[in-house]
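Database export, one record per block. Field names are fixed; values are copied verbatim from the stored entry.
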Amino acid sequence: MGARPSIREQMQRVREEAIVAAVNRLLATKGYDAMTVDEVAAEAGLAKASLYKLFPSKEDLAGAAMVGVLDRALAFVDGLRAQAGEAAQAGQPLRALDQLKAVTRWAMQTQLEGEMPTLPAQNSSLSASLQSNDEYMDRLIALSNRLSIWITEAQTGGQLNPALPGELVLYTLFARACDPVVAMLKESGQYTHAQILDWVTSTTFDGMALR
């Protein structure tokens, strides 16, 4: 067994989690550009100086939040993979397409709950910072690889159009995590979360043509 974390280490961990949770909420509601370090400190209930000791820059704060979201996504995907393995052993294999739909719904549900950071613009300073963040890139690659396996299985199994590049399908699924359509439907106040999830999942995988 490893050494038990000291009280000081446990307190630091709690502070880090509070900071990351605050950043996550602010990124989800305001976006990276509008978020300030002062707001993060106030939201987390910490002095600004204490915050900087743990996260030296705004980019570091956002990076930690993005890593946290990817960890949650990977945990969800790995849970689905475990379920698929159990179903296969029971002689009831799950379709790859259904796994992809489940991940898409999870991402949108996370956004509806205000817990999904807005993805950075491709040419932003945050995007450049994330590309040099090993923890973020390792998790992003791991998630992409897991989803790509299901995408390939769905295409070879006739569940998805095999003529579409796998990257296009992958990026389309990633886009659902911060889809403005989801946010606008939520803000209208006219629809339930279940309706929004059903409609956007349907248009993502089935299109809008009458069938």
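Remark 1: The two ends are 59 Å apart (CA to CA).
Remark 2: The CA atoms of residues 41 and 48 lie 5 Å apart.
End of record.
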